[in-house]
Amino acid sequence: MADRVIYVSPVGWKDGVYQPEKIFLSDMDHLLPRLYVLIAEVFELPDDADKVAVVENMHRGLEYALTQYPALAGGLHVDDEAGRLWVKTNTNDTVPLYVVHAEDKILSYAELNERHFPMAELDSSLVLPKLVTEKSLFSVLGENADEKQPIAVFQINFIRGGLVLGVAIHHNCSDGPGVDSFLTAWAESAKAVATGQPFAPVNPAFLDRTRLSTPTKPDAARSKKLEGRFPIWKDLKGPPPPPPADFKMPALASRMWHFPASKLAELKSLAAASRPETNGNIHCATANGNKSSWWISTFDALVAFVWQRVTLAKLPLLNPDLDSPSMLAHTVNTRMRMCPPLPDRFMGNAVTKARVQPMPIRAVIDPANLPLLAQLVRKATNKITPEALDELTEWISGLDDRRNIHINANSFLGMDFLANSWSHMNAYIAHDFGFGCPRALRWPNPPFEGYLMIFPSRAGIVAKMSDAGDEIVVDAPVEEVEVAQEAPKGKLSVEDALQQVLKNALVHDGLARGLRECAKALDKRQAHLCVLVETCTEAEYIKLIEALCAEHKINLIKVGDAKVLGTWAGLCKIDREGNPRKIVGCSCVVVKETGKRMPASSTASCACSRTLYT
């Protein structure tokens, strides 16, 4: 089966059953940035899976899912005068479904699973077409301002032992929870095709955006009264200014962390340990304060903790005045906060930002203030009431040009911080297209900075992780990520230097492991250093590795023990005492990326062509 593009229409459109329509987006839809919500879901497939049947079932399931959510098949348009967005549908509209055999571009399912599905290996350029990955960010219609903008694009990527589903849906048409609802509908329809079951009926309530708009525009007096009610949003009164002519985009890195459930419970308990007190505009937690706890969520504690740590990590890079303010804003899903709540499968934008009271940087980074920060996160969330949402849509409707709405935060290379959560998405229980639910949901390597994303917990699907909790990703400049990775002082032994280089490469997702992946990296000249186990029994692979290193002048170090190399390459579990357990032997590793240059790199390079018996 060759690579191809299937242009999918909703059921009945080409038969004249459906009439074209103009679907106006809600006031709330205009709050979101002009980019795509990107999602990658990784599925396991048996080696004998019928790929033709998989594609056919997903194709037919998509046809019916688009019937349930027809706006996705239309084109996005904008009113040049007032910046009002709408979707226009026609009977000849289609949604592209790309089918790609990516066995040579994306790691195998087994390799992704072994590495806990790192986002760097699921880059948007690998799992989605250029049609969406090369669009300009924060532009209403991207690069094709005079053409119809596709609202939804999907790509099925077959990999060895699995499938990666790439999803791109325009953010002005849906938020993350809405995309989750659509994928649930698509999965149900595809599974119905596979099992011969009937499709679920179309529910028009899922499409009703009217409750997220104000029916009449406020007069001048009312608009003036609403100004300043929502400090997290601002009306720029025009396009944002371009960056300075000499601005150079820094290298960005996305790092994932896993917080075990037991540690999350411990963090929540710590964040709720004492009630904070205030002293004028300076907030502090006092040792002799009220010890009675007050309610906060695990989300509040986690976001407060990460805000503290990222702010601290930015200090060497940005060197801010510690008395200057830092602000946190986090996304709130308003579906259940509205009265009455929106339908559970509503698709649109029903999220807004909750703004935490700004604080001096020195107060944010004070470890004693963790309870205070967590409580401020909760307080900001509680301000998102039905009444506040009504006023927000009223403010939006009174603007002269809705394209000028922007988040009022200095998070990109600044000291503010933004957070979002997909923790309540149903991927691991509801996105079964007929071959099981995904084993991982990821945000494909986003080009953001100063941003936290919380993924759904994989506790229910990862049997070995009895203490599984939350997975989070933080996007930051490389310099920030490396703050805690200081070079060791003094003279390094070759063994210590090699361990340090491999550790640094692992942190930067720059380490290829295994003979096959190492040979590919060497052949593509992506390697800085190769480490080979001399006792490897794969004679042909050894010859190939040595020949590629010699041909491309890549440094080669040989070691004597595969288990030791596996430990250095992170193929083990670390117990509470810091000792490696369940070590997986590794025959070869290749360093593709090490981040900033460290003394260890030079020491390790000097050891090339030597054998280290460990």
UniProtKB/TrEMBL annotation:
This is 40S ribosomal protein S12. PROSITE patterns: RIBOSOMAL_S12E. GO terms for biological process: translation. One of its GO terms (molecular function) is structural constituent of ribosome. GO terms for cellular component: cytosolic ribosome; small ribosomal subunit. Belongs to the eukaryotic ribosomal protein eS12 family. Keywords: Ribonucleoprotein, Ribosomal protein. Residues 496-590 form the Ribosomal protein eL8/eL30/eS12/Gadd45 domain.
